[in-house]
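Long-time lurker, finally posting.

We've been working with XRE family transcriptional regulator (Staphylococcus condimenti) and I want a structural starting point before designing mutants. I don't trust myself to interpret raw outputs, so I'm hoping someone here can both generate the C-alpha cells and explain anything notable. Sequence follows.
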Amino acid sequence: MIQSRLSVLMAERGLKIADLYEETGISKTTLMAIAENTGKGVQFDTVDKLCNFLGVTPCDFFDYSPYIVETQKSNFVEGNLKGIEIKIKKQNYEKHFNLDIYVYSGDSYDIP
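Top reply, 14 upvotes:
Generated this for you. Predicted structure of XRE family transcriptional regulator:
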C-alpha cells in the first residue's frame, strides 16, 4: 500500500491546507485528498510541487507497506459495544481481525 505522508509533513512544519494552497496553487480539494489518502491517484507535477515546497524527496513524501489494510464497521453493535473489522492482505495472504470497542459515556470514574 502506498500512502502520502503529507499530513505528517504539514504537522512537522506547522502548515495547514490553506497555506499549501496559497503557496503552491494546488486546489484545496486535491490537497485534502492527498493528505487524507482518499484519492485514487496523484499527478506527478502535483507531487513535484509539494516536494519542492516542503523540501523533501518523493521517498520522504510517500510511505510504502507491502500490506493492504482495509477497515470497516462491523455488523456487531450491542449497546455501547461497537465492532470494527480489519482486513490485512498481501499477495496470497489474507487475515481478518475483529476489534470490539466499549464506549463509556458516563462520569463515574475518578481520575486523579
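Before you design anything, note these points.
DSSP finds five helices and five strands in the chain.
The first strand starts at residue 2 and ends at 4.
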